[in-house]
Amino acid sequence: MSGHNVPGDDSFRLKAAAAAVAEVRPGMKLGLGSGRTAEHFVRLLGEKVRAGLEVIGVPTSERTAELARELGIPLATLDEVPALDLDVDGADEIDPELRLIKGGGGALLREKIVAAASKRMLVLGDPSKTVKTLGAFPLPIEVVPFGLQATRIAIEKAATRLGLSGSIALRKAKSGETFITDGGHFIFDAAFGAIPDPVALSGRLGDIPGVVEHGLFIGLARGAIIAGGGELTILGSLG
User: Fold this and answer.
1) pLDDT tens for residues 186-208?
2) Of 39, 93, 111, 142, which one is the catalytic site residue?
């Protein structure tokens, strides 16, 4: 799945990624995010590494790990490097308080673990990703396969208590089979629409035993680099 697309948004992603690479310093331990925007960052970082920049990357998905290896970026696991200096990732939605919806690519669990282990998280995006209220993009909720329908019902009840409703669809892969995350879990995409209180929803979802993680990233992003219309907009702080 991808976020909202706008014409030429790939060039926007490249500009945002270049601005993020400028924040990288020699010796940094980096979280390498997933998705198209993050891949631009990884590719540009690879160029810097080939030119002599010494960094260590911790990838948030198998796809990112494969790309980083191809580019010659030294990699480590989060067990080997449990504290990171900087995490650079994309987002499906970004609100004015730097709260995010992530997980369109299916890597939300590892992305959130890496973000939480980082001193600062920078989010890359284009103007189509910025919203006043989260929720136009369906919220990914990663769940264990066991007890799937019981978990779906619990999610519906939690949403109803907060005045939210909408379809909760089990994500399918392009093959038509059920989508399976790198961690071996399934994903429900919850089309709740506008989420007025993402903090409350985050808490409710976190209380459901079958929910492994969800795509609400709250209090993790330090800053966002939004590229569009020929200019860069910084939300929050890059430092």
Assistant:
1) 999 999 999 999 999 999 999 99
2) 111
